[in-house]
Amino acid sequence: MKPFKFEQATTAVQASQTHADAAPNARFISGGTDILGEIKESVLEVNILVSLAGLSGASEIISSDLGLEIGALVTLARIASDQSIVETYPALAQAAESVATPQIRNVGTLGGNLCQRPRCWYYRSPLFDCLKKGGETCFASDEGNKYHAILGAENCHIVHPSDVAVALLALDATVVVSNASGDRQMPIGDFFVSPDVNMLAENVLEPGEFVSKVKIPKPSSGTRSVYLKAKERQAYDFALSSVAVSLEVRDETITQAHVVLGGVAPVPYSVPQVDSELTGQKIREVDVQAIGQLAVKDAQPLSDNSYKVRLTASMVARAVSRLISE
Amino acid sequence: MATTRDYEPNVVLSNQDYNVVGTRPLRPDGADKVTGRALYGADFAAAGLLSGSVLRSPHAHARIKSIDTSKAEALDGVRAVVTSADFPQGGEGPVVWQRDNVLASDKALYRGHAIAAVAAASPHIAEEAVSLIDVDYEVLTPVTDVQSSMKGDAPILHDSLMTDELGEKADKASNVASHFQHVKGDVKAGFKEADVVIEREFTTKTVHQGYIEPQAATALWNNDGRLHIWCSTQGSFAARDACAKILDIPVSQIRVVPLEIGGGFGGKIDVYLEPVAALLSKKTGTPVKLVMSRADVLQGTGPTPGSYAKIKIGAKKDGTITAAHAYLAMEAGAYPGSPVGAGAMCVLAPYDLENALVDGYDVVVNKPKTAAYRAPGAPNAAFAGEQVIDEVAKAIGMDPIDFRMKNAAKEGTRQVHGPTFPRVGYEEVLEAMKSHPHYNAPLDGPNQGRGVAVGFWFNIGFDSACNIAVNADGTVTLQEGSTDIGGTRASIAMQAAEVLTLPYEKVHPTVVDTDTIGFTAVTGGSRTTFATGWAAYEAAQDVRTKMIDRAAQIWEVDADTVELEDAVFKSKSDPELSMTFAELAGQLGRSGGGITGTAAVSPSGVGGAFAGNIVDVEVDPETGKTEILRFTVVQDAGKAIHPSYVEGQMQGGAVQGIGWALNEEYYMSDSGTMDNVSLLDYRMPTSLDLPMIDTVIVEVANPGHPYGVRGVGEAPIIPPTPAIANAIENAIGTRLFALPMNPAAVAKAVMDK
Known about the structure:
Strand content of chain B: 25-35%
Radius of gyration of chain A: 19 Å
Shape of chain A: globular
CATH architecture of the domain at 223-325 in chain A: 2-Layer Sandwich
Oligomer: heterodimer
CATH superfamily of the domain at 223-325 in chain A: CO dehydrogenase flavoprotein, C-terminal domain
Largest sheet of chain A: 5 strands, antiparallel
Number of helices of chain B: 20
Strand content of chain A: 15-25%
């Protein structure tokens, strides 16, 4: 670990400017559960950490008729237990609850969770100068890729580690990004970028920019959602495969569907062909196994992770099955 | 999951009544541990303490052409840099291997192999200095699994290593350090008699003990020439002896102070940091502390080996096993010395066999030198052997416990490797399993299954010492040299209290350094409660005799007429003469001086231990995830001195076995790097992954110990992997032949069915 400066920002403008001035060797920190590990393990060297923890207004959950606004500093533990989220946005509460351990959920924040770096063990080892770190090789291409991507990966085979992002994408959330001159916002699907677009980052943030809040539209009365996560152990584990599904059901018919996969692609992975297949179907007539198969039809497993294809199909089938029997 | 006990937790067959032995008092070290006051290895502090850091090889196999430390030495704040060249040179065989494992000389033999070390004013400077050391490596092809390493064209680790083939040295370098055999009867003839013969192959991966406290050591090479070492170790004398050998100095020149230990499971017997810290202290003249990170622990200390096994068992329709052949090959890691020898002693031990053959192969590979891990070698062997036993029982249509009972080893059974069993409690363990409500409860669901398996561990004796001193207030202090990993301060003090008829609370045990107590072997081999407990028993007898003599002297009666009962001395001849232990203790100074007792023992009456598991699982055939629904451990403890700590050992062994069965593995890349080098990616089970683990202690007294103790620490890790494998087979109708049986592997087995 190399020495670095720690700057406690009190305003968004100050945080943004401090970060922008020191870019590219500055990072924002809120809960710190991910970035401190990266620094200690010599995966990342920074000159300055800009803490967002003191920013006012970023720790609130505001529920209105339009929907929900969650500040980026809200902890995962709060999201998992917030009554309005548990009742109206169950997939999000379930995704937050599935993260790591109580200790990490008590400290880890929504913004930090969305911006966490990949868990790929080549990326996380200082021994491997991989594509993600500016090197020329993806070490997962040929071997040691049990936990890597089966969908949407060209050169770099990371999977996006966030559980919460998968649920938020299924719930059509919007990400609000702040910098010194103000805010911009985008659908969460546009916030994440695959390595083909930008090898060195997993999102669109520019120097000086940070996630300040997430907005979720109020679901219609017939909407239901769920998040399921397959992991090797019951705590302190990332997804082998996960799925968030949001269905709007009217008169026993699916009128809107959004199925999103996690743990299998470099970004939270929408499967629009599944959404359109589901839309218009009578819930009693849905063939969930076929839906599961459809979700993985483009899968390109690596040498050690073909198990993820069947697993993911099964997770999708289970999630859809659970929602249509609600 | 059973929430309340529907069975008797203790099957007590030892029939003596005790006052203290068999009770469940609080451990003396409990308060410090739960309040965070206990001082562990890394907590040690001293004036002028320097921080050290170790440079580790990025290559799994490389020739070290040169090491340039000049840039590191020039860094401000750096006080010393050492390499293997700073050790005394010479010698051959094990001492060179041990020295080279601590700091590599000519070759780096595994990723994480220590190459050089720095002492500096702060950990950060030390770390930076390490990155300034230039090593010129000639990178060689590594070989990281036992089967590849045994092939003729495998890269050779040691040019001087020739196979010891059944006692004969070969004349060509090989990675096979040795091949040995144990033979009983005629297996060829035995297999001919069989109605059913089943032969299967099995593999297991490297796994780590996973102790929570990383290794830590501080050394001070004092101006008077004496070397003081404060460290986290399972054996202060073992650490002293290893350092003496590596540093080529007399043992008397070294004092090792064992600090509190945060787990070991066998992995803290070998030294890694101690000799290096000593070299750095010698160069700097100040104390130097080295502490490992988790990545250092996983890559730079000894795990337990990956292995290959082929097991063939034949039986008649009536259930008699006619012959068994076990072929075991285990990875030693970078230097010879895998636990295949112990595995070979245990693999067929539960069975009374007319004809048996065990082949053992000790094979070097480019991974860390393996260290002991709880019954080393036996779980690898049992994963193979106990699955074939299960399959044979099924093939002849016999209940797997009945099949084991029909062939059960008992007192007088000659084991394949030679020794004859004294009284052992295996049949009693099987009876307790068979009659347990768990074994007879119905399963509930299509993908549920039940499995059983057993395991044997021989346990060890070796040397232990104990001192006891009587205080004027009627308490006694007890000094012992066994590091306390599993509650042994309590289980040792209890044996002294029993002899002295004192309440447990009156005995104050302390684990002391190597200058303060007689030689005491490691806390390992499930020996501590057995052997150091025996030393405490003898030291207490010494005190008892002296106290009785003193009472007799004060009363002016014959010592034969004085007895000690319930902490009161009485004269058999004069009922008026009576005095409590405390009253006599208060008079010692005036009546001739204080009383101490001492003992040094090396007991031979070691009692082996059998453990059995009953496991229910539910397998999700789509995700491949195995959930443990119910888990029962039955084990012969001989006599459970402190039943709670015996149950703790049984549960702890089961937990580690479950992790080994379902998740844990070194995930090695072709380049010989461990990919999953963190406890996030190296998945040990959490409390949420585990069921309540029920325990049944069977007590068949060991005739070789005053209280009947058998060691209990290791046997319980042996049966879990095969018991779970047998349960999975019962659940999904297909058998897994490789560890770990993780979701990917189980899902594949279901697909391939």
